[in-house]
Amino acid sequence: GQPPGKPELIKCRSPEKETFSCWWKPVSDGGLPTNYTLFYNNEGEESFYECPDYTTAGPNSCYFDKKHTSLWTIYNITIKATNEMGSNISEPHYVDVTYIVQPNPPVNLSLALNKHTDGKLYLLMNWSSPPLADVRSGWLTLEYELRLKPEEGEEWETIFVGQRTKYKVFSLIPGEKYIAQVRCKSDHGEWSKWSSESYIHLPKEFRLKD
Amino acid sequence: GQPPGKPELIKCRSPEKETFSCWWKPVSDGGLPTNYTLFYNNEGEESFYECPDYTTAGPNSCYFDKKHTSLWTIYNITIKATNEMGSNISEPHYVDVTYIVQPNPPVNLSLALNKHTDGKLYLLMNWSSPPLADVRSGWLTLEYELRLKPEEGEEWETIFVGQRTKYKVFSLIPGEKYIAQVRCKSDHGEWSKWSSESYIHLPKEFRLKD
Amino acid sequence: PICPNGSISCQVSLGDLFDRAVKLSHYIHSLSSEMFNEFDERYAQGRGFITKAINSCHTSSLTTPEDKEQAQQIHHEDLLNLVMGVLNSWNDPLLHLVSEVQTIKEAPDTILWKAVEIEEQNKRLLEGMEKIVGRLHPGGLGNELYSRWSGLPSLQLPDEDSRLFAFYNLLHCLRRDSHKIDNYLKLLKCRLIHDSNC
Fold it and tell me: How many CA atoms are closer than 13 Å to the CA of C125, on its beta-carbon side?
């Protein structure tokens, strides 16, 4: 057997600026059972601490709950892989939770056909912020982006809508079946994944102009 | 000769939320040379100040540069007309710079006929934000409105498109010559003038759906 | 119409003041973030500056809330005072950043322009915050917080690596503090204007 290869931290992410998780890539372990330990220390602190929770975020991960999560401070994180032949330590990975915010996708995307006061029909899209995100207190500010395309179409039409959670779409083809999705990002963070798809089949006589 | 009539402040406008100008209507001066002075003070302040620059914005105007422009206060502005027989003062005119933002019109409006992957033809409208505003896109959030009509037609179709700078139009009459324009506004401000007109002549066989 | 009943209570509403302050703080942080990323990509790759930038911001003496719970427990007066303290503490370094950035070899216009824009907008935000504080606490906030910056000599060091690190550290701290200000203002706006129900 061999001592383990050098572990590598892949990604850290915070879904709502209150907790965060990190994941690492398991090493080539030459068939020997390998054990991983994550150590971290905070800016301005000498002592290192061990990962508070290895399970919540799944295999090869560490989850930092609210009590262990601070913003505007740099975490110095290293992973140690150990087997009976020895151990190996990753390069230090520097993380500020402020800049790793990637929310979960928005939920409850609904599509409905409505009629404007001037008789024009339009599609009203409605959605909600991801459950964990505390938008109400102002701690997290979310911005949204929609995309829409005919079911058979290749090309999505993407529309940035700022902080709104509903939007009216006018330029649509009558009789067409449309697919829609929405995603969000924290005001200064990374886009979430797209939400699950929602569908609507526009009636033939869905005139854009009477 | 007579003392001058009562001057009247016509309009104040800021093109980019950084500076602003005001214009007034000259009074009936009964043939006597009349001199105008603009005074302003800010909410909660007693002292009045005189217009910092009577020339930059043209005749009968006052220009407030960055140093004299504040977003945080309401300006109380009055105009005084004076001739050798006496003087007269306008009604106070209150100005909140955020509400008088009127950008210059958008530029480079282009119209192009495009074919969807599924064969449908549509008109793709593309434009750019006005020169002054595009440099500070984060500071001046612009929203756009389009209007479109057949050349001989009377009635414009107007479409609000939010922050987008391109838009697809489906509901058009084949063989028709269309005129299009676009305008923009900042969140609380006024609509810009309409852009110059752009034209497109749709081919006869321009089918909406093959 | 603005001020329908003349000059009586003719002032920008507290809600509008906060809206404008938040729009400005968001804009300043976006610029600071872009400027840092541009500098990092162009001048800091492979130099390990981040390890030396730890715990070295001139404003770290101002104890600020570091998570949601702390930020929600702090009285709005103290949070406002902190925002003012951080903003004031950046006036001097931003002024020098504008002049010193021009001495960096082949500094792209986009970094120069952002330094000028941030310095200007920071002063504008400070003006707005003084208006907001004056509205909420006419008597003032009591002890004014301020953290002196003494980093000018390091921006003028002859040794290029040390000088570039000094710039890196300043831009790293500007990105961090502008984010704090933006986050706290959004929190204060929701608390004071929308009763914590944004």
Answer: 30
In the predicted structure, residue C111 carries a pLDDT above the cut 50: yes
d(CA B156, CA C153): 63
Residue B86 pLDDT class (50, 70, 90 cuts)? very high
Q: How far apart are CA C20 and CA B97, in angstroms?
A: 11
CA dihedral B58, B63, B66, B72 (to 10 degrees): -140
User: How much is the mean pLDDT over chain C?
Assistant: 93
pTM of the model: 0.91
Tell whether the model's pLDDT for residue B87 goes beyond 90: yes
The chain A residues in contact with chain B (CB within 8 A) are: 150, 152-155, 157, 159-162, 167, 170-173, 175, 207-209
Amino acid at A53: D
Q: What is the pLDDT of residue C4?
A: 77
Neighbours of chain B (3+ CB pairs under 8 A): A, C
What one-letter code names the amino acid at B79? I
The predicted complex's ipTM stands at 0.88
Q: Which residues of A touch B210 (CB under 8 A)?
A: none
Amino acid at C93: P
Q: Report the amino acid identity of residue B95.
A: V
Length, in residues, of chain B: 210
DSSP letter assigned to residue A97: G
**Rounded to 10 degrees, what is the CA torsion of C126, C132, C136, C142?**
10
Inter-chain residue contact C66 with A70, CB threshold 8 Å: yes
